[in-house]
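Run log, item B.
One chain of 513 residues. Sequence copied directly from the ordering sheet:
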Amino acid sequence: MDIGTSRYYEIKEQLLFVSEARPETYTARKIIPIPERLIRCIWFDQRLNGKKLHTLDGLPVKVFSQGEWNMCGGPDFLEALVQIGDADPIKAPVEIHVRSSDWRRHGHQNNSEFRDVALNISMWHDDASPVVYNDLNEPIAQVELCGAIDEDIMDVAADIDMENYPFASHSRVGRCHKAMQGRGANTGFVLELAGQERLLAKARRFCRELQRRAFAEVLYRAVMESMGYRPNKQAFRRLAACAPLEAVQRVEQREPPERRALALQALFFGASGLFSNVPVNMFDSETAEYCEALAAHWAEYEKDLCKPFLHKKDWTLRGVRPANFPLRRMAAAAHLWARFGARGLERRIADLGREIKAERDPKAQRKILSALVDDLHQPAEGYWKRRMSPGGAVLESVPSLIGKSHAMSVVVNVVLPLLVCRAQKQGDADLREAALNFFGSVPRLDQHQITRIMRYRVFGDIHGGQTLLRREIIQQGLLQVFFDFCDENVRDCARCKFPDLIRMGPDLRLEME
């Protein structure tokens, strides 16, 4: 049995098209006090007259995609697709300001995060130069919006719900929303198939890796990658290569159960490049004792690791919440592997396969899922029972190292795709079907920026699709549709073919080659 190519994937490939956007319309030269967020909303909705949009040195600007609203640090919009003059279209960040002089006032000319910005967009130009410069002293074109807006700015402000942007943007209601009217069952059917395709795509990736590595090693690397909060996934994968499964097995062989988690923390911390160069006597007594124990384990096991090790620059720390800080996630992984052992989780996945093949009743499957999540849940233990970071304040209560939501995410993104791989290797069609069926019973995980945008785009409201979106397979389907259609169809949704999938509904089958 081959995982192969799904019918969803085949039809999606046939339907994808890219087309040009048609921006819209504003005008006012008088500088008045307005919040920068309002200008971001105007840019996001493209309430502009595209024929009047040009750089300060006279080059026409064509906007194919306004980009995605950046909820973190750095430029305001990421991956905008714009064309300046006769040059080729470029995909790059854009920055938004009330006045053009805010670029210098905010210090962007000295910040490498703004190096690749394509346009400095402001409502009003109040600077002498038609360009600004990045940290490499390279020029960045500027655009003044006031001459390209045909509405009164106060009318625009009254029409925009700034507090709920970017998710309440009218520009984010797609053509698919109209197509789904009266076709709720079709929409659910297609999104479920798209969710299955997303799971199968992850399984294909793991299957390719299984051609080079043993199942336990692939599982180990995948779980380690899942410990990385979005920007640090790749760094955690590199960490798993530096501290491979063989090193974890040596710790398991040499250390008693009560010391394994501490020894594994020493391996992960040391190889990460994040835990060094701080004098032990700078810490409180508990932290100093913890650091000394880590140092002793590191001296014993460093030779078992694979160089080169990582450096601090390899990790994203800015904007990461304390609960997701890399060292804390490494401690979570250390406790998880110390508890399961190097092969324990592989056996747990095999047990899961037998359970879900034998029990298809939804209520029973929810109990199976709950038991699996309980197994993966990792309470805060040892030094981390009262700390959020090494040397941090002692707290009365701290969150789990691996909470229930994170454990559920590991099930969706690691366990089930690998179970599909096992089914493929064993030629077990019943196991593959059981894994997909089990995936359909998983309740929805936390929403993030893309799923919130897609919820508005497809259902027309941030609260739309509540019944469908109770299940994670539908949310995963929204993610798949975003990357297949919305992200690929970057220029606009005017000629997107996803509405055709909704109209097809049950005629779209997930058939395997």
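Observations after the first pass:
- The chain has 19 helices and seven strands.
- Confidence is low (pLDDT under 50) at residues 16-29.
Flagged for discussion on Thursday.
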